[in-house]
Model the fold of this input.
Amino acid sequence: MPVPEEQKITPDTKSESSQDKEPAYVTLKSSDTSKYHGGQPFKNREFSGRVASINHMEGTIQVELGDFPQESAPDKKVEQKEGSESLSVEASHSTVESDRHPDRNEDRVLNRAEDKLFAVFDGAGGMGGGERASSIASEIFVKGAATLDQAKTAGEVKMLMDSLFKNAREAIKAAQKTSPELAKMATTGSVAKIIEQDGKSYAVIGQSGDSRIYRIKGDGSVEQLTSDQSYVNDLVKSGEITSEEAINHPRRNIIVGSVGDGRTPDYSTVELSAGDKLVIVSDGVGDNLGTGEKIADQINLAIKEGKDPAQALVEFARAESRNPNNELAKADDISAVVVNFESAAGKKSEAVQEEGETNKDREPGEKVKAILRLGRTMVPRPAEIVGLAESGPGEGKFYKVKFDMGQGQEPIEAEISVEDILES
Done:
């Protein structure tokens, strides 16, 4: 098969071959100037193939075209099960600084429901280095969020996420050289990108360091989706200590992988179901609570009591860090993101179950909870009524609203149907 000229992807990363890794499969669209090697044009075509190499310095990839065996692709599409449906996404986050350095917080949290990207970065290095490293990594993922959101398969997400991790690593390495105080700075990175593929929802997970991602299932059970890149976890894997002994091991804080070093992040993909929750935490949560079961207990209790689950978890972990009877107590920055997945159809039915309430006139400035539509995904978000829209598709009443996207993010203006208003 002919090989097309290299296509631009992500800039400002170093040159490195990807041939020693599991191959990625991509779908690309050529521009009106694209050519095969040899000069034959292939204008404005969509094609699929296998990534042959990546040049991170120039921001290019080389793709072999062809129909490759489906079973050889690491992220082959899964047939849609009968009755499968889209999931709505709702997330909360919280973070608090350590008692050891109350003047700064070295954790950075991403809660971007609008493009279904969630992460925790826990910086290390002291003297402001950890704060700088986690900021660099989080900013690179924020800038890359739109590119990640264009991916159509889990395989494409992994390839793009890997490029963002490498970009962050190179940016941190460059910053390390600017000052002796920053020479040892690094950061963990636990990232989850939600993608729909063949009518089902998946979380593509990237992991570097010892921040963690858990899944709490609808029945309340919990599983850890990431594996710590840490000295103690390596001891567990080698059989030198047990997982129970690792919980209060004196060297449990030593990480052997971070965004700032050369260790490859770990990647995985998990299918999500209605009722699932993803919980992303820094080790300030994990170390002070000890087990995923204790984390799940606090999340489930908070939801039962109508509290913000991320805030309740962080507050409980901080209390445990100050508890003289907690042998695991450790002063640290403490951060959490909790992402809840529900049936989008169920959410909409909630919106219309009280017809009189749903269809009442809304006043400008009124605070509501409404469905923000992002492609095929529907995200419940707080919103403020701006006024009636002049027109909308089909019959019915439409409102102009501003969706609150969370701390530090610009509101999104949109026109919504009255049926998309869930509650006042």
Notes: Residues 154-176 form the longest helix (23 residues). The mean pLDDT is 77.
